[in-house]
Amino acid sequence: MIRTGVNGRIEHVIAYLGTMLLVGAAYGLRLGVFRLVAMLIAYAGVLEIGQNFSPGRHASVFDFAASSCGVIAGAVAFQLAYAVFRETPIGREVRRANQPSR
Q1: How would you write the pLDDT of the chain (102 residues) with one tens digit per residue?
Q2: Residue 57 phi, psi (nearest 5)
Q3: Confidence (pTM)
Q4: How many domains is the chain built from?
Q5: Domain span at residue 18?
Q6: Which long-range contacts (CB under 8 A, 24 or more apart) does 4-10 make?
């Protein structure tokens, strides 16, 4: 597996923070940030448990905690960014993208 040279838990935080920002922009207003946080944390848990069934891998509570912290940090960053950009073209586009399709 290719690594960046950064601690693996920092990689977890960065990966899940970025994922939460993208998922928040796509579904945050429609589904609610709290639901998205719960779903991504559950997903991180499933991936950690799944490592028990993959040869050479092992689940780690600390990796799960790092992933969860990344999700929460991403949710906070999304909420702050949305509050700042709400009345700009970016905020209007996020609201438009989160409208139910007709």
Answers
A1: 677 889 889 999 999 999 999 999 889 888 999 999 999 999 999 999 999 999 988 899 999 999 999 999 999 999 999 899 888 998 888 888 877 776
A2: -115, 160
A3: 0.86
A4: 1
A5: 8-97
A6: 8/63, 9/62, 9/63, 9/66, 10/66
Amino acid letter, 33: V
Q: How far apart are CA 70 and CA 40, in angstroms?
A: 10
Is there a domain that residue 85 lies in?
yes
Tokens of 96: 């438009």
8-31 helix and 61-85 helix, angle to the nearest 10 degrees: 50
Q: Tokens in use for 74? A: 């991403």
In a domain? residue 102: no
Query: Per the domain annotation, does 44 fall within a domain?
Result: yes
